[in-house]
Amino acid sequence: xxxxxxxxxxxxxxxxxxxxxxxxxxxxxxxxxxxxxxxxxxxxxxxxxxxxxxxxxxxxxxxxxxxxxxxxxxxxxxxxxxxxxxxxxxxxxxxxxxxxxxxxxxxxxxxxxxxxxxxxxxxxxxxxxxxxxxxxxxxxxxxxxxxxxxxxxxxxxxxxxxxxxxxxxxx
Length: 171
What we know:
This protein has about 170 residues and is mostly beta strands. The protein has strands at about 25, 30, 35, 45, 55-65, 70-75, 90-95, 105-110, 115-120, 125-135, 135-140, 140-145, 165, 170.
């Protein structure tokens, strides 16, 4: 990549389009109508890193439809890691209609691309958030949803009242 600075009072340059977590070497020389001057020795610099892109959820599967309910979420690693390893994944989940309460949180090693969700309730829709972390921070969240089964009633109806009149039964 070559760049030029025109004018005799400019002593700096801004170089754009650099990739995160990448080493670059810079050399500077002056030039005029008579030709190029001597180049400086290369100055090596490393750009700062960035958090990875979000993980890519693949599936959410119920492991048991009877209490205690359990589910598994699987994902692919982030597409963009900026040449850094993924240190960990964080999984947050909660029922969608339960905004007042916090999320359940799971931390997963960076080499594992799944998590098991526990403490689930029947007949609820869940929001699941997955993020990936490296030495430079955490990705934005990838979002998935899960709806648990309603299940069969576990007992007979309680407090049933009957009213019989005119040959009909009312509940």
